[in-house]
Amino acid sequence: MKEISAKEVQQRIENGEMLNLIDVREVDEVQAGHIPGITHIPLGLLEFRTHELDKNKPYIMVCRSGGRSGQATQYLESQGYDATNMTGGMLSWEGQVE
């Protein structure tokens, strides 16, 4: 499974990269604070919403601590998607939040 640190994601965003971030936390968690520009797909709905994703794009999966996003990354990889887990999740995020 591919992994990226929260710091590295933050640096890439600050450098102007357009990243495809998918936040797999629950609605209340995302409303409490999330990285600007995310796509919100709760982990429990991921398998029903993969049709919204493009197999030609890389995705970075985000959750609170890295556990659920790790599950999401493994699932998407098994379905042929290019997915990377943001280790440490939002607990490690020091960048901007909405």
From TrEMBL:
Signal peptide: none annotated. Pfam families: Rhodanese (PF00581). Coiled coil: none annotated. InterPro entries: GlpE_sulfurtransferase (IPR050229), Rhodanese-like_dom (IPR001763), Rhodanese-like_dom_sf (IPR036873). The lineage of its organism: Bacteria, Bacillati, Bacillota, Bacilli, Bacillales. PROSITE patterns: RHODANESE_3. This is Rhodanese-like domain-containing protein. Residues 15-98 form the Rhodanese domain.
